[in-house]
Protein backbone atom coordinates (compact mmCIF):
# COMPACT_ATOMS: atom_id res chain seq x y z
CA UNK A 1 0.00 0.00 0.00
CA UNK A 2 1.28 3.45 -0.98
CA UNK A 3 0.59 6.23 1.54
CA UNK A 4 -0.12 9.70 0.13
CA UNK A 5 0.46 12.33 2.81
CA UNK A 6 -2.56 14.60 3.16
CA UNK A 7 -1.62 17.93 4.72
CA UNK A 8 -4.26 20.04 2.96
CA UNK A 9 -1.78 21.19 0.30
CA UNK A 10 -3.67 21.14 -2.94
CA UNK A 11 -5.61 18.46 -4.66
CA UNK A 12 -4.05 15.09 -3.93
CA UNK A 13 -6.55 13.05 -5.89
CA UNK A 14 -4.62 13.40 -9.15
CA UNK A 15 -1.73 11.43 -7.65
CA UNK A 16 -4.18 8.78 -6.42
CA UNK A 17 -5.80 8.58 -9.87
CA UNK A 18 -2.42 7.98 -11.51
CA UNK A 19 -1.72 5.17 -9.00
CA UNK A 20 -5.18 3.68 -9.64
CA UNK A 21 -4.35 3.66 -13.32
CA UNK A 22 -1.13 1.76 -12.48
CA UNK A 23 -3.15 -0.67 -10.29
CA UNK A 24 -1.16 0.37 -7.21
CA UNK A 25 -3.32 0.40 -4.06
CA UNK A 26 -3.01 3.71 -2.21
CA UNK A 27 -4.47 5.70 0.62
CA UNK A 28 -4.68 9.49 1.05
CA UNK A 29 -4.43 10.25 4.75
CA UNK A 30 -3.05 12.53 7.45
CA UNK A 31 -3.03 9.68 9.98
CA UNK A 32 0.60 8.87 10.79
CA UNK A 33 -0.33 5.37 11.99
CA UNK A 34 -1.84 4.48 8.63
CA UNK A 35 1.18 6.01 6.92
CA UNK A 36 3.47 3.94 9.20
CA UNK A 37 1.83 0.85 7.74
CA UNK A 38 2.33 2.03 4.16
CA UNK A 39 5.22 0.44 2.28
CA UNK A 40 5.98 3.70 0.44
CA UNK A 41 5.28 7.36 1.12
CA UNK A 42 4.37 9.94 -1.51
CA UNK A 43 4.64 13.51 -0.29
CA UNK A 44 2.93 15.76 -2.84
CA UNK A 45 1.80 19.36 -2.62
CA UNK A 46 0.64 22.45 -4.45
CA UNK A 47 0.50 25.87 -2.85
CA UNK A 48 2.77 28.01 -0.72
CA UNK A 49 5.63 26.84 1.51
CA UNK A 50 4.58 28.84 4.58
CA UNK A 51 1.08 27.39 4.74
CA UNK A 52 2.36 23.90 3.92
CA UNK A 53 4.86 23.93 6.80
CA UNK A 54 2.23 25.32 9.17
CA UNK A 55 -0.14 22.47 8.23
CA UNK A 56 2.61 19.86 8.62
CA UNK A 57 3.60 21.13 12.06
CA UNK A 58 0.02 21.43 13.24
CA UNK A 59 -0.62 17.78 12.41
CA UNK A 60 2.79 16.63 13.69
CA UNK A 61 3.55 15.20 10.26
CA UNK A 62 6.86 17.11 10.04
CA UNK A 63 8.36 14.82 12.69
CA UNK A 64 6.97 11.67 11.05
CA UNK A 65 8.26 12.61 7.60
CA UNK A 66 11.79 12.99 8.93
CA UNK A 67 11.44 9.67 10.70
CA UNK A 68 10.19 7.82 7.61
CA UNK A 69 13.14 9.11 5.61
CA UNK A 70 15.55 8.18 8.43
CA UNK A 71 14.04 4.70 8.88
CA UNK A 72 14.59 3.82 5.23
CA UNK A 73 11.00 3.82 3.94
CA UNK A 74 10.97 4.78 0.23
CA UNK A 75 9.78 8.40 0.08
CA UNK A 76 8.89 10.36 -3.06
CA UNK A 77 8.51 14.15 -2.89
CA UNK A 78 6.55 15.98 -5.56
CA UNK A 79 6.64 19.72 -6.38
CA UNK A 80 5.97 21.65 -3.14
CA UNK A 81 6.64 18.42 -1.23
CA UNK A 82 10.13 18.49 -2.74
CA UNK A 83 10.69 22.11 -1.76
CA UNK A 84 9.76 21.74 1.89
CA UNK A 85 12.23 18.89 2.49
CA UNK A 86 15.02 21.47 2.14
CA UNK A 87 16.19 23.60 5.08
CA UNK A 88 14.43 26.80 4.11
CA UNK A 89 12.45 28.53 1.38
CA UNK A 90 12.45 32.14 0.25
CA UNK A 91 8.69 31.75 -0.20
CA UNK A 92 7.14 33.36 2.90
CA UNK A 93 10.69 33.16 4.36
CA UNK A 94 9.89 29.69 5.68
CA UNK A 95 11.96 27.38 7.82
CA UNK A 96 11.39 23.90 6.33
CA UNK A 97 12.03 20.24 7.19
CA UNK A 98 15.80 20.24 6.70
CA UNK A 99 15.94 16.69 5.36
CA UNK A 100 18.08 17.88 2.43
CA UNK A 101 20.76 20.52 3.08
CA UNK A 102 20.13 23.61 1.00
CA UNK A 103 17.48 26.19 0.27
CA UNK A 104 14.66 27.00 -2.13
CA UNK A 105 14.96 30.27 -4.06
CA UNK A 106 12.66 32.36 -6.23
CA UNK A 107 13.39 32.54 -9.95
CA UNK A 108 14.91 35.95 -10.64
CA UNK A 109 12.48 38.42 -12.25
CA UNK A 110 14.74 39.18 -15.19
CA UNK A 111 15.22 35.58 -16.31
CA UNK A 112 16.19 35.39 -19.99
CA UNK A 113 16.85 32.73 -22.57
CA UNK A 114 18.08 33.49 -26.11
CA UNK A 115 17.39 37.15 -25.45
CA UNK A 116 13.72 36.50 -24.56
CA UNK A 117 12.35 37.42 -21.15
CA UNK A 118 11.05 34.29 -19.46
CA UNK A 119 7.74 34.13 -17.68
CA UNK A 120 7.22 33.12 -14.08
CA UNK A 121 5.84 30.68 -13.03
CA UNK A 122 7.86 28.19 -14.99
CA UNK A 123 4.77 26.48 -16.37
CA UNK A 124 4.74 23.72 -18.95
CA UNK A 125 6.87 20.88 -20.28
CA UNK A 126 10.61 20.93 -19.84
CA UNK A 127 13.46 18.47 -20.11
CA UNK A 128 15.13 16.73 -17.22
CA UNK A 129 18.68 15.47 -17.63
CA UNK A 130 19.03 12.65 -15.15
CA UNK A 131 22.56 12.63 -13.79
CA UNK A 132 22.71 8.99 -12.92
CA UNK A 133 21.14 5.63 -13.41
CA UNK A 134 18.64 5.01 -10.65
CA UNK A 135 15.94 2.35 -10.26
CA UNK A 136 13.20 5.03 -10.08
CA UNK A 137 14.28 6.58 -13.43
CA UNK A 138 14.62 3.26 -15.25
CA UNK A 139 13.07 3.18 -18.72
CA UNK A 140 12.63 6.95 -18.95
CA UNK A 141 14.12 8.23 -22.20
CA UNK A 142 17.09 10.55 -21.93
CA UNK A 143 15.93 14.19 -21.92
CA UNK A 144 12.28 13.17 -21.45
CA UNK A 145 9.99 16.11 -20.70
CA UNK A 146 7.87 16.56 -17.59
CA UNK A 147 5.16 19.01 -16.56
CA UNK A 148 6.32 21.80 -14.24
CA UNK A 149 4.44 24.58 -12.44
CA UNK A 150 6.53 26.57 -9.95
CA UNK A 151 8.06 29.95 -9.16
CA UNK A 152 10.69 28.68 -6.70
CA UNK A 153 13.47 26.14 -7.28
CA UNK A 154 15.62 23.95 -5.03
CA UNK A 155 19.33 24.65 -4.50
CA UNK A 156 21.01 21.74 -2.70
CA UNK A 157 24.00 22.81 -0.61
CA UNK A 158 25.76 19.63 -1.61
CA UNK A 159 25.45 18.89 -5.33
CA UNK A 160 25.81 15.16 -4.77
CA UNK A 161 22.12 15.22 -3.76
CA UNK A 162 21.14 16.45 -7.23
CA UNK A 163 20.08 13.65 -9.55
CA UNK A 164 18.57 15.69 -12.38
CA UNK A 165 18.81 19.15 -13.88
CA UNK A 166 16.52 21.40 -15.91
CA UNK A 167 17.23 24.63 -17.81
CA UNK A 168 14.98 27.65 -17.49
CA UNK A 169 17.13 30.72 -17.90
CA UNK A 170 19.32 29.13 -15.25
CA UNK A 171 20.16 25.48 -14.70
CA UNK A 172 18.37 24.25 -11.59
CA UNK A 173 18.19 20.99 -9.69
CA UNK A 174 14.85 19.38 -10.62
CA UNK A 175 15.50 15.95 -9.09
CA UNK A 176 17.00 15.02 -5.73
CA UNK A 177 17.92 11.45 -4.83
CA UNK A 178 19.80 9.82 -2.02
CA UNK A 179 19.33 6.42 -0.41
CA UNK A 180 15.58 5.88 0.10
CA UNK A 181 14.56 9.42 -0.88
CA UNK A 182 13.65 10.68 -4.34
CA UNK A 183 12.12 14.12 -4.84
CA UNK A 184 11.15 15.84 -8.07
CA UNK A 185 10.14 19.44 -8.77
CA UNK A 186 7.77 18.44 -11.59
CA UNK A 187 4.41 16.61 -11.55
CA UNK A 188 4.90 12.99 -12.69
CA UNK A 189 1.15 12.40 -12.29
CA UNK A 190 0.59 14.98 -15.06
CA UNK A 191 3.57 14.15 -17.27
CA UNK A 192 2.13 11.45 -19.51
CA UNK A 193 4.02 8.20 -20.00
CA UNK A 194 7.45 9.20 -18.58
CA UNK A 195 5.71 10.41 -15.42
CA UNK A 196 3.69 7.22 -15.06
CA UNK A 197 6.88 5.19 -15.58
CA UNK A 198 8.54 7.10 -12.75
CA UNK A 199 5.58 6.49 -10.42
CA UNK A 200 5.38 2.81 -11.33
CA UNK A 201 9.14 2.40 -10.73
CA UNK A 202 8.84 4.12 -7.35
CA UNK A 203 5.99 1.86 -6.24
CA UNK A 204 8.11 -1.22 -6.95
CA UNK A 205 11.32 0.20 -5.50
CA UNK A 206 12.79 -1.20 -2.30
CA UNK A 207 14.46 2.07 -1.36
CA UNK A 208 18.03 1.18 -2.30
CA UNK A 209 19.66 3.57 -4.77
CA UNK A 210 22.39 1.11 -5.79
CA UNK A 211 22.10 -0.52 -9.22
CA UNK B 1 14.15 25.24 -22.16
CA UNK B 2 10.39 25.21 -21.96
CA UNK B 3 8.53 23.62 -24.86
CA UNK B 4 5.77 25.53 -26.62
CA UNK B 5 2.49 23.81 -25.78
CA UNK B 6 -0.04 22.57 -28.33
CA UNK B 7 -3.49 22.45 -26.76
CA UNK B 8 -6.57 21.01 -28.43
CA UNK B 9 -9.81 22.64 -27.36
CA UNK B 10 -13.01 20.65 -26.98
CA UNK B 11 -16.42 22.30 -26.79
CA UNK B 12 -18.84 20.19 -24.80
CA UNK B 13 -22.58 20.55 -24.65
CA UNK B 14 -24.72 18.23 -22.52
CA UNK B 15 -21.74 15.89 -22.23
CA UNK B 16 -21.14 15.61 -25.99
CA UNK B 17 -18.50 17.19 -28.13
CA UNK B 18 -19.25 19.99 -30.57
CA UNK B 19 -17.11 22.48 -32.42
CA UNK B 20 -18.61 25.90 -32.73
CA UNK B 21 -17.76 27.68 -35.94
CA UNK B 22 -17.92 31.43 -35.35
CA UNK B 23 -20.01 30.59 -32.28
CA UNK B 24 -22.93 29.59 -34.52
CA UNK B 25 -23.71 26.28 -36.21
CA UNK B 26 -22.37 23.50 -33.98
CA UNK B 27 -21.52 20.07 -35.34
CA UNK B 28 -21.47 17.08 -33.03
CA UNK B 29 -18.20 15.17 -33.29
CA UNK B 30 -18.46 12.72 -30.43
CA UNK B 31 -17.56 11.62 -26.93
CA UNK B 32 -15.20 14.09 -25.20
CA UNK B 33 -13.50 11.38 -23.12
CA UNK B 34 -12.63 9.28 -26.16
CA UNK B 35 -11.40 12.29 -28.11
CA UNK B 36 -9.34 13.46 -25.10
CA UNK B 37 -7.76 10.01 -24.90
CA UNK B 38 -6.92 10.13 -28.58
CA UNK B 39 -5.29 13.57 -28.28
CA UNK B 40 -3.41 12.49 -25.15
CA UNK B 41 -2.00 9.54 -27.04
CA UNK B 42 -1.16 11.76 -30.02
CA UNK B 43 0.96 14.02 -27.81
CA UNK B 44 -1.31 16.90 -26.76
CA UNK B 45 0.48 18.90 -24.06
CA UNK B 46 -2.72 19.90 -22.32
CA UNK B 47 -6.44 19.87 -23.14
CA UNK B 48 -9.00 22.64 -22.76
CA UNK B 49 -12.69 21.88 -22.27
CA UNK B 50 -15.40 24.50 -22.69
CA UNK B 51 -18.77 23.60 -21.29
CA UNK B 52 -21.32 25.34 -23.48
CA UNK B 53 -24.29 23.63 -21.86
CA UNK B 54 -27.03 26.21 -21.73
CA UNK B 55 -28.93 25.21 -18.63
CA UNK B 56 -27.36 25.30 -15.18
CA UNK B 57 -29.16 22.08 -14.12
CA UNK B 58 -27.40 20.09 -16.79
CA UNK B 59 -23.94 21.25 -15.69
CA UNK B 60 -23.52 18.18 -13.45
CA UNK B 61 -23.18 16.18 -16.68
CA UNK B 62 -19.91 18.06 -17.25
CA UNK B 63 -18.59 17.06 -13.85
CA UNK B 64 -19.08 13.42 -14.85
CA UNK B 65 -17.14 14.08 -18.06
CA UNK B 66 -14.34 15.77 -16.09
CA UNK B 67 -14.11 12.81 -13.73
CA UNK B 68 -13.88 10.31 -16.58
CA UNK B 69 -11.29 12.44 -18.39
CA UNK B 70 -9.16 12.63 -15.21
CA UNK B 71 -9.14 8.83 -14.98
CA UNK B 72 -8.10 8.52 -18.61
CA UNK B 73 -5.44 11.11 -19.38
CA UNK B 74 -2.37 12.06 -17.33
CA UNK B 75 -1.62 15.53 -18.60
CA UNK B 76 -3.05 18.81 -17.33
CA UNK B 77 -6.47 19.92 -18.49
CA UNK B 78 -8.66 22.92 -17.86
CA UNK B 79 -12.40 23.41 -17.78
CA UNK B 80 -14.28 26.61 -18.44
CA UNK B 81 -17.77 27.82 -19.19
CA UNK B 82 -20.26 29.23 -16.76
CA UNK B 83 -18.08 28.85 -13.66
CA UNK B 84 -18.44 31.99 -11.60
CA UNK B 85 -18.01 30.99 -7.95
CA UNK B 86 -15.24 29.47 -5.82
CA UNK B 87 -17.63 26.60 -5.09
CA UNK B 88 -18.08 25.97 -8.81
CA UNK B 89 -14.31 26.00 -9.25
CA UNK B 90 -13.86 23.58 -6.36
CA UNK B 91 -16.30 21.08 -7.90
CA UNK B 92 -14.40 21.07 -11.19
CA UNK B 93 -10.97 20.82 -9.51
CA UNK B 94 -12.10 18.00 -7.21
CA UNK B 95 -13.49 16.18 -10.23
CA UNK B 96 -9.93 16.22 -11.57
CA UNK B 97 -9.25 19.37 -13.62
CA UNK B 98 -5.93 21.17 -12.98
CA UNK B 99 -7.19 24.54 -14.06
CA UNK B 100 -10.42 26.45 -14.30
CA UNK B 101 -10.99 29.19 -16.83
CA UNK B 102 -13.19 32.19 -16.25
CA UNK B 103 -14.28 34.56 -18.98
CA UNK B 104 -17.62 36.40 -18.94
CA UNK B 105 -17.90 35.62 -15.22
CA UNK B 106 -14.61 37.43 -14.48
CA UNK B 107 -15.57 40.53 -16.47
CA UNK B 108 -18.80 40.75 -14.49
CA UNK B 109 -17.08 40.00 -11.17
CA UNK B 110 -13.28 40.49 -11.29
CA UNK B 111 -13.10 39.44 -7.63
CA UNK B 112 -13.59 35.82 -8.67
CA UNK B 113 -10.01 35.80 -10.03
CA UNK B 114 -8.53 36.81 -6.68
CA UNK B 115 -10.84 34.49 -4.75
CA UNK B 116 -9.98 31.55 -6.98
CA UNK B 117 -6.24 32.28 -6.81
CA UNK B 118 -6.40 32.49 -3.04
CA UNK B 119 -8.35 29.25 -2.71
CA UNK B 120 -6.46 27.11 -5.24
CA UNK B 121 -3.34 29.03 -6.29
CA UNK B 122 -2.78 31.20 -9.34
CA UNK B 123 -1.68 28.20 -11.40
CA UNK B 124 -5.31 26.99 -11.30
CA UNK B 125 -6.87 30.17 -12.64
CA UNK B 126 -6.92 30.83 -16.37
CA UNK B 127 -8.42 34.06 -17.66
CA UNK B 128 -10.29 33.44 -20.90
CA UNK B 129 -10.49 36.57 -23.05
CA UNK B 130 -12.68 37.04 -26.12
CA UNK B 131 -11.40 40.07 -27.96
CA UNK B 132 -12.60 42.08 -30.95
CA UNK B 133 -10.69 44.68 -32.97
CA UNK B 134 -12.31 48.14 -32.82
CA UNK B 135 -11.19 51.66 -33.72
CA UNK B 136 -9.00 52.92 -30.87
CA UNK B 137 -10.78 55.44 -28.63
CA UNK B 138 -10.36 56.85 -25.17
CA UNK B 139 -11.66 53.82 -23.21
CA UNK B 140 -10.09 51.39 -25.68
CA UNK B 141 -6.60 52.77 -26.33
CA UNK B 142 -5.25 49.44 -27.58
CA UNK B 143 -7.95 49.12 -30.24
CA UNK B 144 -8.95 45.75 -28.82
CA UNK B 145 -12.17 45.48 -26.85
CA UNK B 146 -13.28 42.72 -24.50
CA UNK B 147 -16.49 41.01 -25.59
CA UNK B 148 -18.51 38.58 -23.53
CA UNK B 149 -21.40 36.11 -23.88
CA UNK B 150 -19.50 34.27 -26.59
CA UNK B 151 -18.75 37.41 -28.57
CA UNK B 152 -22.21 38.98 -28.60
CA UNK B 153 -21.81 41.73 -25.99
CA UNK B 154 -19.29 44.59 -26.09
CA UNK B 155 -18.06 45.63 -22.65
CA UNK B 156 -16.24 48.93 -23.12
CA UNK B 157 -13.22 47.26 -21.49
CA UNK B 158 -9.80 47.54 -23.10
CA UNK B 159 -8.29 44.08 -23.66
CA UNK B 160 -4.74 45.07 -22.69
CA UNK B 161 -5.87 46.85 -19.53
CA UNK B 162 -8.01 43.87 -18.58
CA UNK B 163 -5.16 41.40 -19.14
CA UNK B 164 -2.87 43.41 -16.84
CA UNK B 165 -5.62 43.81 -14.24
CA UNK B 166 -6.33 40.06 -14.27
CA UNK B 167 -2.64 39.32 -13.79
CA UNK B 168 -2.57 41.69 -10.82
CA UNK B 169 -5.64 39.95 -9.37
CA UNK B 170 -3.88 36.60 -9.55
CA UNK B 171 -4.68 34.93 -12.88
CA UNK B 172 -1.98 32.38 -13.65
CA UNK B 173 -2.41 32.26 -17.39
CA UNK B 174 -4.37 33.91 -20.19
CA UNK B 175 -6.21 32.14 -22.97
CA UNK B 176 -6.58 34.85 -25.59
CA UNK B 177 -9.20 34.33 -28.26
CA UNK B 178 -9.60 36.66 -31.20
CA UNK B 179 -13.26 36.76 -32.24
CA UNK B 180 -12.19 38.26 -35.59
CA UNK B 181 -9.89 35.33 -36.36
CA UNK B 182 -11.99 32.58 -34.74
CA UNK B 183 -13.32 30.11 -37.28
CA UNK B 184 -11.60 31.75 -40.26
CA UNK B 185 -8.69 29.27 -40.50
CA UNK B 186 -6.67 32.22 -41.82
CA UNK B 187 -4.27 32.30 -38.88
CA UNK B 188 -4.13 33.67 -35.36
CA UNK B 189 -4.27 37.39 -34.77
CA UNK B 190 -0.56 37.97 -34.33
CA UNK B 191 -0.58 41.67 -33.42
CA UNK B 192 -3.09 41.13 -30.60
CA UNK B 193 -1.25 38.08 -29.27
CA UNK B 194 2.15 39.80 -29.31
CA UNK B 195 0.68 42.90 -27.67
CA UNK B 196 -0.85 41.03 -24.74
CA UNK B 197 1.98 38.51 -24.34
CA UNK B 198 4.69 41.16 -24.21
CA UNK B 199 2.83 43.20 -21.58
CA UNK B 200 2.08 40.48 -19.04
CA UNK B 201 4.41 38.23 -17.06
CA UNK B 202 2.14 35.18 -17.19
CA UNK B 203 1.87 32.67 -20.06
CA UNK B 204 -0.46 33.44 -22.96
CA UNK B 205 -2.26 30.76 -24.96
CA UNK B 206 -3.23 32.01 -28.42
CA UNK B 207 -6.65 31.03 -29.70
CA UNK B 208 -8.74 31.53 -32.82
CA UNK B 209 -7.86 31.18 -36.48
CA UNK B 210 -5.63 28.11 -36.68
CA UNK B 211 -5.98 26.39 -40.05
CA UNK B 212 -2.53 24.98 -40.78
CA UNK B 213 0.78 24.32 -38.98
CA UNK B 214 2.31 27.53 -40.41
CA UNK B 215 -0.21 29.50 -38.35
CA UNK B 216 1.07 27.93 -35.15
CA UNK B 217 4.64 28.66 -36.17
CA UNK B 218 3.72 32.33 -36.70
CA UNK B 219 1.92 32.78 -33.40
CA UNK B 220 4.55 30.93 -31.36
CA UNK B 221 7.36 33.06 -32.84
CA UNK B 222 6.19 36.46 -34.10
CA UNK B 223 3.06 36.36 -31.94
CA UNK B 224 5.16 35.62 -28.82
CA UNK B 225 2.59 33.10 -27.56
CA UNK B 226 3.60 30.46 -25.02
CA UNK B 227 1.05 27.96 -26.27
CA UNK B 228 -1.40 27.57 -29.13
CA UNK B 229 -4.97 26.35 -28.99
CA UNK B 230 -6.22 24.27 -31.90
CA UNK B 231 -9.62 22.84 -32.70
CA UNK B 232 -11.03 22.09 -36.14
CA UNK B 233 -7.66 21.39 -37.75
CA UNK B 234 -7.35 18.30 -35.57
CA UNK B 235 -11.05 17.59 -34.95
CA UNK B 236 -11.63 17.14 -38.67
CA UNK B 237 -8.46 15.07 -39.05
CA UNK B 238 -6.88 17.45 -41.56
CA UNK B 239 -3.79 17.50 -39.30
CA UNK B 240 -2.41 15.48 -36.41
CA UNK B 241 -0.84 16.86 -33.26
CA UNK B 242 2.32 14.87 -33.96
CA UNK B 243 2.48 16.27 -37.49
CA UNK B 244 2.09 19.84 -36.23
CA UNK B 245 4.79 19.30 -33.61
CA UNK B 246 7.21 17.84 -36.12
CA UNK B 247 6.60 20.81 -38.40
CA UNK B 248 7.28 23.25 -35.56
CA UNK B 249 10.39 21.35 -34.52
CA UNK B 250 11.73 21.44 -38.08
CA UNK B 251 11.29 25.21 -38.01
CA UNK B 252 13.23 25.70 -34.81
CA UNK B 253 10.39 25.81 -32.26
CA UNK B 254 10.95 23.57 -29.25
CA UNK B 255 8.04 21.21 -28.74
CA UNK B 256 7.65 18.03 -26.74
CA UNK B 257 8.33 15.26 -29.24
CA UNK B 258 8.49 12.15 -27.06
CA UNK B 259 5.59 11.06 -24.94
Task: Looking at this protein, list some descriptive labels.
heterodimer, A: 211 residues, alpha/beta, Rossmann fold, 25% helix, B: TIM Barrel, eight-stranded parallel barrel, 10 helices
List the helices and strands and how they pair.
The complex is a heterodimer of chains A (211) and B (259).
Chain A: E1 2-5, H1 13-21, E2 26-29, H2 32-37, E3 40-43, H3 49-58, H4 61-71, E4 75-78, H5 80-83, E5 86-89, E6 94-95, E7 100-106, E8 112-113, E9 116-117, E10 122-127, E11 129-130, E12 145-150, E13 152-156, E14 162-168, E15 170-178, E16 181-184, H6 192-203
Parallel strand pairs in A: 1-2, 1-3, 3-4, 4-16, 5-7
Antiparallel strand pairs in A: 5-6, 7-13, 8-9, 10-12, 11-14, 14-15, 15-16
Chain B: E1 5-13, E2 16-20, E3 26-30, H1 32-42, E4 47-51, H2 60-72, E5 77-80, H3 86-95, E6 99-102, H4 104-108, H5 111-120, E7 125-133, E8 144-148, E9 153-158, H6 159-169, E10 173-178, H7 190-199, E11 204-207, H8 213-221, E12 227-230, H9 232-235, H10 241-250
Parallel strand pairs in B: 1-4, 1-12, 4-5, 5-6, 6-7, 7-10, 10-11, 11-12
Antiparallel strand pairs in B: 1-2, 2-3, 7-8, 8-9
Describe the structure.
The complex is a heterodimer of chains A (211) and B (259). With 211 residues, chain A is α/β, with parallel strands linked by helices. Helices cover 25% and strands 34% of the residues of chain A. Chain A has a single domain, classed as Rossmann fold, CATH 3.40.50. In chain A, β14 (162-168) and β15 form a beta hairpin. Chain A has six helices and 16 strands. In chain A, strands 2-1-3-4-16-15-14-11 form an eight-stranded mixed sheet. A four-stranded mixed sheet of chain A has the order 6-5-7-13, covered by helices on one side. Chain B has 259 residues and is an alpha/beta fold. Chain B has one domain (5-250): TIM Barrel. Chain B is built from ten helices and twelve strands. Chain B has an eight-stranded parallel β-barrel, surrounded by seven helices. In chain B, α1 runs parallel beside α2 (60-72) and α8 packs across α10. Residues 20-26 of chain B have low confidence and may be disordered. Classes of the chains: A alpha/beta (211), B alpha/beta (259).
Amino acid sequence: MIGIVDYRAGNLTSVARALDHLHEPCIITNDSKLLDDASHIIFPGVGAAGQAMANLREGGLDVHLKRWVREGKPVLGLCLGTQVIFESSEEDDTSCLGIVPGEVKRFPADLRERGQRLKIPHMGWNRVSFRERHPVFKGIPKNAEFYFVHSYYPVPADETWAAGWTDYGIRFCSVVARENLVAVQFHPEKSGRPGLTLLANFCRWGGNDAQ
Amino acid sequence: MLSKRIIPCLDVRDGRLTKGIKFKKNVDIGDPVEVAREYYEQGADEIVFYDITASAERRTIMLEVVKRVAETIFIPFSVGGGIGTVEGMRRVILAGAEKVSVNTEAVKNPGIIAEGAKAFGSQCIVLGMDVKRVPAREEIPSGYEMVIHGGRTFTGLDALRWAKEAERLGAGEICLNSIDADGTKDGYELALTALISSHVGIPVIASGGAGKPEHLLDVLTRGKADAALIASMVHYRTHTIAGIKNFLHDHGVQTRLRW
